[in-house]
């Protein structure tokens, strides 16, 4: 009860627009985690399509904030992963544009999540002539994310995953194990559980 009262007090102290942004952001994050980690794979593409429309409206309501742009980029990139094929390329380009726009507004927002997400795009998207994939850019962005949030679950997971792809298994293990040991995030329990499972799977691949 005490924690609930403290949370409510904190929310009441925030300006109304900040309260609205925080509440909407939480809803987007929770729905993303449910789709990514709890829905059967055949149902994810349609669900992400709906969530992508929601995030576009979210950006429209808060045009001067980095957080909605970051989550638009995250949703579009995972929507692309669920969609697959050439149709996904336009989605990842839109995701990159949203994340780059977020960096222009506030590169520190959400503990450097724009850097994490851009880095993951650059190593997972095919390179020229099909896409814009670039391992050097991926490494730079992921290292910037770690500089901002060295203990973060996503920053460590994606750098570890990148290092696996780069053929650096021993270094990868360090970051994947850090992802497993990362502190929990309030309200992100489903996402944290899913990401820990991702890290365990990657570690077992090693």
TrEMBL record:
The keyword Signal is assigned to this record: yes
Classification via Pfam families: TPR_19
Keywords from the UniProt entry: Signal
Gene3D superfamilies, per database record: Tetratricopeptide repeat domain
Signal peptide per UniProt: 1-18
InterPro entries: TPR-like_helical_dom_sf
Domain of life assignment: Bacteria
Protein name (record): Tetratricopeptide repeat protein
Organism name: Marinobacter daepoensis
